[in-house]
Structure formats: structure tokens, C-alpha cells
What we know:
The complex is a heterodimer. Chain A is of the alpha+beta class. Chain A contains five helices and 13 strands. Chain A has helices spanning about 25-40, 70-80, 110-115, 120-130, 220-225, and strands at about 5-10, 10-15, 45-50, 55-60, 95-100, 130-135, 145, 160-165, 170, 175-180, 185, 190, 215-220. A seven-stranded mixed sheet of chain A has the order 7-6-13-5-12-9-10. The longest helix of chain B has 25 residues, at about 305-330. In chain B, the strands form four sheets. Chain B has an eight-stranded mixed sheet. Chain B has a six-stranded antiparallel sheet with strand order 7-6-9-4-1-11, with no helix packed on it. Chain B has a six-stranded antiparallel sheet with strand order 2-3-10-5-8-12. By secondary structure, chain B is of the alpha+beta class. In chain B, about 20% of the residues lie in helices and about 25% in strands. Chain B contains five helices and 22 strands. The chains are: A alpha+beta, B alpha+beta. At the A-B interface, β1, β3 and β4 of A face β16, β19, β20 and α5 of B.
Amino acid sequence: MEFTLSPLGDGAIIIKIGDTIEPDSRLKIQSITSALDASAPTWLTEYIPAFTTVTVFYNLMNFNSKHPYDAACYELSHILRELRINSECEKFLVEIPVYYGNEFGPDLKYVADYNSLTIDEVIRIHTEAVYEVNMIGFAPGFPFLSGMSEKIAVPRKSSPRLSVPARSVGIAGLQTGIYPIETPGGWQIIGRTPTPLFRPDEEIPSLLHAGNKVKFNRISLQEYMQLEVVDE
Amino acid sequence: MINVQKPGMLTTIQDSGRHGFQKFGVIASGPMDTLAYRVANILVRNDENDAVLEITLTGPTLHFEEDMLLAICGGDLSPAIDGIPIRMWRPVFITKGSQLTFGQCKCGLRSYLAIAGGFNIPVVMNSKSTYLRAEIGGYKGRALRKGDCLTVGTSRRITNSFCRTLDGEQTTYLFKEPGWSVSSNLIPPYGKSRPIRVIKGPQFHLFSELSRRHLVNSKFEVTTQSDRMGYRLNGPKLSLKKEAELISEAVSFGTIQVPPDGNPIVLMADRQTTGGYPKIGQVATIDLPLLAQAKPGDMLEFTIVTLEEAQNLFMKKEREIQQLKKGISLIIKEGEL
């Protein structure tokens, strides 16, 4: 597998597999992270995977070298050279129940009007697709999803909201996603899920992972209330 | 037990940070000034990763219900015990019933209070650091408030043996502090205007020639929209040679990213894990404490150094910190009760 190594400041190295997102990018990235997990070198404090890069944070003092960057690159190359690209394993499908509209989806009507659709049609199109998680990042458990129909695409809000409630489902441009925690945000909010995406008490605190398939399911307000975990 | 009589502007529990979870989008948090944080722990013979209080601008008023050994490092926020100033950058033994207050911000912005034995705080995802936005970690996931009670694992053996070594040093009956302190060359030159050393960022070459010159020739003001997440700077606008759609990738503590409006943001302890803005530079780790102690209104200058220079400086500082650790272990011994 082709890759380049370059520094991110004096404490990290960017492993890059390409400049554009290709169909096999995600699998290559997962192969790299699997290899890093398997070798778990002591000098590696953690890594952050993205679309076409994995950034590795390293402890300079572990190498006993005047040139720790070079030493780390040498070790990293070794690990990556041995690499086998993961065969695509079964992709888990995660179903996300969503209550659409009203108070939980204040921008749903906007999305419908913008695309000359009815609200029901927007919901149908949003729930029809099977999305893929390309990466987790930006916020805890936040999934970057691909596969949304351009029929329901809308621009971001010109003035972002100061606060978007946790578990809000939104659309911005051609992307759809879910806010795992309350943050400011400029996405058009169309609904909310009772399912937590971020679980700080679990060993793996993110519900979703790169490679998962995601499907949204429409639920009623009553079902939402039943499913919602009472806040700690 | 420590009672919080006044919380101060933003006082949070921080340990070395939440590591290993950034791949799930969980931010690292941790101290803004890692040097002051580590030295404070070393001075009371704590583990270097133990939790401390990060104190911002206006400090808290704390009441101590037991004898404790503490150390305060970082910016000078005028700490005092029962009204009498105590000195920083050294361990100080204080007696039961003491009240710690802070006053005028004389230098810097953030101060770190370490207590021998550390703080008893639940661990969330391997760390005691406070993740304010997600309301997890630290003390109940938030900054301290009036009425809060902190329990400490007071290390009595260390406290008493050190106290004995202080008999004979200059003391008052309220507290005992040694005449010595951390050597001044270990302490970063807070507040002395000195260019901050920066390594070229991954997208440095995508910026216009003019922007690259602005970075090192201009002064940038720290705006009021500066916090634990990032410092927003005001100065000449920086721009790319031509528009580019960048793919999101990891960022780090010290990343200088430039959004479309041209105003650089230096990412700090509570930064998000990834970003899609071009990165013009990366602050050298050795100079991050200088940023952590800069406040709104301060003017910053940058200078470019090579990766090698930055790493050499880092390793030199690490060796100095290890020497301090050895020195402290000789002075403060774990003795008998």
C-alpha cells in the first residue's frame, strides 16, 4: 500500500494514503489502524483516523535518539510495510430511530420547501437510503455519513444556532449527520434520535464506527419517549 | 477535604489529559500549560499524571480542613494563605484550617494547584480531566462552584517528613515554605514578549507568499473569543494562493488553522479532534505554555523553526524536568509518620 509520512508539529506524524477520497480509502485506513492496534508500540500514545490519513501521536523520549521524528518514521514504515489490507468484513447495520419535525426538527419544513417536496417526502427520502460511516471525528461519536440523496440537500444556516440539542439529526449541503452532544451548529435540524451516540461509560464510547452502515427509521413521539434513556 | 468558598472565574480539575479516545472524537482536554501542571505535581511528589486544579484569571477561595502539602505553578495570581502571600514554584506545607485566596493577576493567566496525594475524582475514559462541553470528567463534569467539596488523597507520609525538613527554614506558624524554588531556567518566559516558535504546518505551502510573510512579520492580537478550545487571533488576514477544498484530518494542540475569514485560530486543550481548515503552522510544544498564559489583548509574534530545532528544545526541557524530579525525590523523602 502506498503511503507518505509527514510531521504534524513536533509530536505527531501524518500517514497519508492519498489526496482524494476513493472507494477503497476507508478500508485502507482501517487496515492501518488495525495494524497499529496489533503492534501497539510503546512510543505510540494514540492515533486519529480520518478520510485519507491516520495521524499518530508519539512520545519523543521513547526513542533515545537525537532525531526522534526519523526514528518514529522508521518504526512506522516497518509496521506499515507488513500491512495486509483488511478484507471487507461484514458491515454492521445500525438503525437509528428518529422522531422527525415539530420541536425536534425545526428546519424540516425549510428542507421540504427548499426542495419543493412535502415533509413526508423528505422523511421518506431520508429514511430510504442506507448510509455509510466514513469516519468518526470532530465531536465524540460524531459520524461523517455518505449516501444522502441530493433531493433533500440544503445549504447550512447562514447564522449557526448557539446551541443544537444533543442527538439532533441534521442536513448541511449533501451531508447528513447526528450531533452526539450539545454544541453550537449550523446544520438544518430535521429530527432527533433517542439513541445516544456517545457513551462515556462504555469501553468503546462511540456507538458508530467507520465502515458501519446506518439507516434512519421514522418513529412516533410516543415511541421516542419510550426509547429515550432517562438522563443521568 | 477542601471546601470551595468562592469558585473563581473558571476552576477545573485537569490531569494530563484524556488519551486514547480521540479516535472516537472524544477530545483530549487536560491542562493548557502542561509545564506548570507537571512541575506542580513533581514538587509535591505526585505522579506526573495526577489531577490538579487549573485556575483561570480570578482564583477560588479554598478552605483546607487538614494539613496539606501543596504547590502552585504557572501564572502569578497572587496566592495567599490567610492573607499572607505564599510563594510559587515550590512545595508549601499548610496547616489545617488555612484559607487559600488569590488576588491580582500579576503575570500570565492560569495557575495550577497540586496537592500531595492528588484529588479523589472519578475516572471517566481513563482520565480525571474535565470535558466541559460534554459535561463529563473532573468535578461533576463542570467548573467548581461555591459549596463544592473536594476530597484529597493526602499523602501524610510525604507531608510530615517534608515538614520536618522545613523546621529551620523561614516560616510562619500558618505555613512552611522553603527558601528554594524551581530553577528559573525551567520556567517559561511568561509575559516577556518573545516570538513564539512555530513549525510549518501541513498546508503552509498552500498559503500565499504574502500570508507566509505576515505570519512571521506581523503581530497578532489575542481576541476575547479565546478559550480552552482555541485562541482566535486578530491581525493581517491570511489566505491561500487559491481556493482549496480540504479533506478533514486530525489536528493537534498548537495547530494554527485558518478559516475562510482569514483570522488564524490556535487550537488548544479542548480542541475538536479533526478539522478541514488549512493549517499554516504548528506551535512548537516547548512554547505552548507561553500561549496558555497569554490573555485577550496580548500581542503575539511568531517565528519559524525547523522540526529538528523544536524537538531538540523539547528533549532538553524534558531532561531538565527529569532532573527536577530527581532533585525533589532527594529532598522530600517518603518517611515514617
